[in-house]
Amino acid sequence: MKRLAVxxxxxxxxxxxxxGRADAPVIVKAIQLDQxxxxxxxxxxxxxxxxxxTGGCHGSARGQDGFHLSLFGYDPAxxxxxxxxxxxxxRVNLALPEESLLLQKATxxxxxxxxxxxxKNSDFYKAVVKWxxxxxxxxxxxxxxxxxxxxxxSEIVLEGGNATRQATVTAHYSDGTARDVTPLAVFFTNNxxxxxxxxxxxxxxxxxxxxxxxxxxxxxxVGSAVIVVPKAVPFxxxxxxxRNYIDALIDAKLRKLRVTPSAVCSDEEFLRRVTLDxxxxxxxxxxxxxxxxxxxxxxxxxxxxxxxxxxxFVDIWVMKLAEMLRIRSGADVSEKAALVxxxxxxxxxxxxxxxxxxxxxLIDSEGGIxxxxxxxxxxxxxxxxxxxxxxxxxxxxxxxxxxxxHNHPFDRWTMDDYRGFVAFFTQIxxxxxxDPREMVVYDRxxxxxxxPVTNAVVTPKFLxxxxxxxxxxxxxxxxxxxxxxxxxxxxxKHFANVIWAQFFGRGIxxxxxxxxxxxxxSNPELLEALARRFIDYNxxxxxxxxxxxxxxxxxxxSLPNDSNAADIRNFSHAxxxxxxxxxxxxxxxxxxxxxxxxxxxxxxxxxxxxxDGQTTNYFLKTFGRASRxxxxxxxxxxxxxxxxxxxxxxxxxxxGKISNGGLVKRMLADKKEPADIVNALYVRCxxxxxxxxxxxxxxxxxxxxxxxxxxxxxxxxxxxxxxxxMFNH
Amino acid sequence: MNEFxxxxxxxxxxxxxxxxxxxxxxxGLVGGLGLTLGDFFKLRAEEALQEAKAKAxxxxxxxxxxxxxxxxxxxxxxxxxxxxxxxxxxxxVDGVYFSELMKETAKIADKIxxxxxxxxxxxxxxxxxxxxxxxxxxxxxxxxxSIGSVVSHELGSRQDLPPYVCIPTQPNPYAGSGYLSNxxxxxxxxxxxxxxxxxxxxxxxxxxxxxxxxxxRQNILAAVDAHFRGLEKSDALDAMDSFYQHAYSLxxxxxxxxxxxxxxxxxxxxxxxGRNSAGMRMLMARRLVEGGVRFASMVYxxxxxxxxxxxxxEKNLPQFDKAYAALIRDLDRRGMLDSTLVMVTTEFGRxxxxxxxxxRDHWPRVFxxxxxxxxIKRGSVYGSSDPTGAEPDENPxxxxxxxxxxxxxxxxDASKKLMSPGDRPIDIVRGGQFVPELIA
Lengths: 729, 440
Prior knowledge:
A: Immunoglobulin-like; B: Alkaline Phosphatase, subunit A; globular
């Protein structure tokens, strides 16, 4: 083993010298040379690296061809037993180690479904033989375990295709030692097209773009960002306006990518975009005239403030939170309970209660939901596992469900992390209230979370954090404090990202509720800065939204240039986004001057204000409204389908609202010029006037008085069916 | 050491959630070639169909899990607690008996194949349903596409009709497009054909809009869209365009729309099918595949008879029996049976013994399905269950083998890989074997 360790360390330094550049230091702080061979330290990583314990092979739940290993090695003790004890111990031959079935299979010496995994001359082979030679010892209980893993360099910029760079991986152990584990780490990339990574950790560039290369060792995955830029193409970042920290951080990234941001959009585009994003409505014709006539240099900033103070801004965020909290009546939740919960949420946001306090109230709630509506949090979901998963996903943007059954192979979460987080929810109990529609939530101070492999009790543990002293305490109060604290590593970032995504159609981490090592932010510095501001702003949605809307980045045109056309994740130009179902329905009502009626809302109520996930209509369903059955942001569907096209071009919504609203008829009765009516319809639907070409194309339709109304209504129909209407741009 | 590729994140399909942007790129690419989606589908379809026996498929799903003992696999010689409340009757096939409530189906048994050895071992409704709709065991994270969506993806549209239609609506999440783009999801009729005032939404122009006016509207829309199209490029815009083209052709083609017009069916035929949900949905399905739909999927009844299996079966089965026999006869009369695969499936069977509530509970170890047409043997029984209906006796049929065989009859190679997000290819069916014994 001594020889092997030296060899490995030497090989890596050599590889770094050969492939790397001078700025890729390999620092091996300490190499422990005299450690005895160990199953966990030496053999397990080889099984993982050779792919033996993957889901497609022996790591599958039932194993493969009679041999089962824990997936990615989550259960080393069990794996030890299965290798050394099962099958009459036929897998290992301590007398003749090289005759062990384990090695014969792995080297392909005997028939093996998985083929040859490593060579007889390889270091892996020698290491396993050495372990068998030593008698295949069981590890002592105090065997050092890896506590952290590092991959370096953390950022790699490669020029042109086929440029290479060696990555190294270092593991730090609980006894304070470090070890270069590059040969034992499993490497993968999230974008083969731009950067490949070899089994030995050599990164090779491909097409221009970004990739994230990752290394997994033990239960930890770490990664490095790779940027591939064109070789020897002169690039000067243009002089562009940086209005605030957002632009500065966006531009810093774009510089690295050699991408030029798009120009600032027109006043018309800005007015439409920002009104839709903040209020979920289109600008009224009067707002259009006023804004375009306004010559003040700060008129965009003023508009942002006006819009943020409108109650419709609150409606949008109540809807989004109601989706996260799955407010929906059903078999176990009465309509009244859903309504009470929703109204509470609405009140909180109307009063501008900081969102960390709001969440803390939800988690720490108890009692009857009618007196204390936030207790609805424990009524809409009752399974402790799901409560833990949902809490992580909805408030922290982290998905931990993989770790229910095995250590998350591409993130940091272990089964212990998972069960430790579940432990916050295992002592909640519920009973029927006096009103049968009501549920009363209370803490029964008993009930434990257990590891499903060992059946050991797992005490409460914050995700990625410490184990609080929970004895005789209400565990939910502990969790509420941790989540709402400014020191929480996820909360502020997650909500900053959710707010960002509302204005760009995608998050800096996308999807917003799936942050993981293998799904890194496209601009970590920006996310960090937004989170810091959000905390400074006392978790006020409005103030962060104001920064975002004021940035040049938000106000960029959707027109791409040669350098940024392919970019979708660095916000170098505005994205074209379909309106979500509720907003589209409300906008159709708004521009046609018609009112909608939804259950639980007065006539004229808007779809974004619907309290209950159950309440819906054909339009909303067809355009992908979330039914709120799960908290996943993927419930809101923006996907087009045939029924949507049929509904808009031939359904009663557009047709009926055009005639019920009577807008065209009214304008004709008011003796408005046909051309002015077209203008007015364009302004209502598109927030712009028709182009010269459009005026000329439409003019013949308006010539004859007797067909004028019909033709104008057809123009209206066409505007509502156009993509310029359906999409925010 | 160098010959293996390390397992990457993308190698494990269980780690995907639905993202279909890439699929739009794909549709967008088609647009870039100057082909409409319809042309493209036609090209694809011509390639794929060379070997296909079945041009279309009707899927009749009996949700809840119908008892095989009370339908296709009676156990007349078993003790009463296994045999259940009903007797059995001979069928057109010598030695094959059905439940006594299946008098009509017994008469067409010589036209169909009964599989009495379907097995998958998933005893929860959603898991069993997932198996039967996708050909895959459920995975915690990835959503597999339904067989209907794969057919839509592989074979595309015929005669201006959507390739995959659900009657009356998409019955469960597993009947959707999974990791494929929504472009391949089902078109839902939106109403029950058994209702007197049933029509499919939004297909027919309103009385105020004649064909000429509709054409004018399309022209105006093209003009209005031109400006925006000149400025913006996005996959989502292209996808929306493709659906508009599809919708135009559907609305403008009286022939295509006629496929949804159940009123055009003669009264005598409606009576033969039965004027109820079972009959009218099956008649609708026949009409749709006749018009050009590739995959018509319908559900009928509720079969989760934990209590009073006798009452539940008596309520549901006779209507099914009459409608199903009528469908097979009708297809055969029209010469469509050989080119239309009809499958009757359910999520699992029910326990061999009647329980204390006079019902039967979930039993996925063995159950029955029925296949007919599209090259499937006539008058055949495949596999068998043991004397109590507890385990497969001969030729157990797995979900994978079942799906592979169905796909093959449609001219689809089940070992083909489809692209899921992240450029990860995933087999249409993983590890299934074609079952030649099912085929004529």
